[in-house]
Amino acid sequence: MNVAVLPGHNADESKRIAAGYGFWIFLLSDIVMFSCFFASYAVLVHATAGGPDTRQLFDVDRVAIETACLLASSFTCGLAFVASGRRSAALFYLSMTATLALGAAFIALEVVEFVSLAARNAGPGRSAFLSAFFALVGCHGIHVTIGLLWLCTMMAQVYAKGFRGDILRRILCFTLFWHALDIVWVALFTVVYLIGVAP
Amino acid sequence: MTESPPRPSANQLAPGDSPEARSGSEIGGYVIGLVLAGGLTSVSFWVARGTLFWPPSIPTALIVLAIAQMGVHLVFFLHVTSGPDSTNNVLALAFGVLIVFLIIAGSLWIMANLDHNMLPMDRLMEMQR
Question: Which of A47, A103, A30, A158 is nearest to A111 (CA)?
């Protein structure tokens, strides 16, 4: 990567600021994409076509566990980021493994939910509401799954190449990605699940 | 292999980098963020189940809590703050929030308006015969 050196920074810092800023722009565009799914969900939430509605379908206890998993994984991801800055390999591997386990638990719970909905004849084809629901929640789930693959890649790269400047930039971008997914989930559990089951 | 460790410096910060990294006290920020975010999440779930509230006020309360929690995530996890070091990051964020607001509010407004002006479905079917 060839980046002009910013005033007051050395070359490595300049690359880090450029890479982080560019990835931040990508994340914001990703959030704009999510907002389209949110808008379609909000428009279609009452279009149940005589099928089950939010109150009959959603299990708030499972959503609470999913939320706890993702929030804790955001924290451990932050720890991994701090560890990478301090070049502490043991803390890095430990917190990345914890992030991986919590993220995998989240995905597993989401798959259980989708399977149980499909088994109750409430799959994505049942109504416009359920199409919008599966599109929105599924899109977030795919993001988390890709994030887990990226997480494994970063652990392997640190193992193979150490805490080099380019690896640290990738870890910065991964951390931003993971925290952004948690922010999307905050909007998601509020708009979809909590408002869906509120009296 | 002797590249200098990328450290936040006085002039600009990449999003995610915190100014506290120099003093080594950044884990404290993540702990505060975890406690605040966990607290707000618990209140959200409690409000959604609770029967203590006037029901029509619950969605608004939940949205306010969610926006507060997103702010906590931005400040304590993503380190996007109002400090002079992250002006570029905040400007990009402000633009993103504007677009998100336009998409969501605009969609709801237009679709509610269409819905309001549309003939009831049974009348529509009769006219097509």
Answer: A103
Contacts of A181 in chain B (CB under 8 A): none
Of A150, A132, A141, A153, nearest in space to A69 by CA = A141
Burial status of residue A149 (CB atoms within 10 A of its CB: 0-12, 13-18, 19 or more): exposed
Cα torsion angle, B5, B10, B14, B17, sign: positive
Q: Verify whether the Cβ–Cβ distance A21 to B10 is below 8 Å.
A: no
Query: Higher confidence at residue A143 or residue B1?
Result: A143
A69 touches B: beta carbon within 8 Å: no
Q: B26, A82 in Cβ contact below 8 A?
A: yes
Residues 6+ apart with CB under 8 A from A61: none
- Give residue A68's pLDDT: 96
Q: Which of A81, A102, A167 to mutate to test the interface with B (most CBs of B within 10 A)?
A: A81
Cβ B55–A64 below 8 Å, yes or no?
A: no
Question: Would you call B20 an interface residue with chain A, using a CB distance cutoff of 8 Å?
Answer: no
Cα distances (Å, whole numbers) of residue B70 to A40, B11, B27, B95: 21, 26, 19, 16
pTM: 0.89
Task: Quote the DSSP letter at residue B120.
Answer: P
Chain A contact present for B16, CB below 8 A: yes
Q: Determine the residue of chain A that is closest to B108 in CA distance.
A: A43
pLDDT confidence of A3, banded at 50, 70, 90? low
Give the integer Cα–Cα distance in Å for A148 and B100.
Answer: 26
Q: What is the ipTM of this complex?
A: 0.89
Question: Is B65 an interface residue toward A (CB < 8 Å)?
Answer: yes
Per DSSP, the residues of B55-95 read GGGHHHHHHHHHHHHHHHIIIIIS---SSGGGHHHHHHHHH
| Residue keyed to tokens 């509610």 | B112
Look up residue A112 and give its DSSP letter.
H
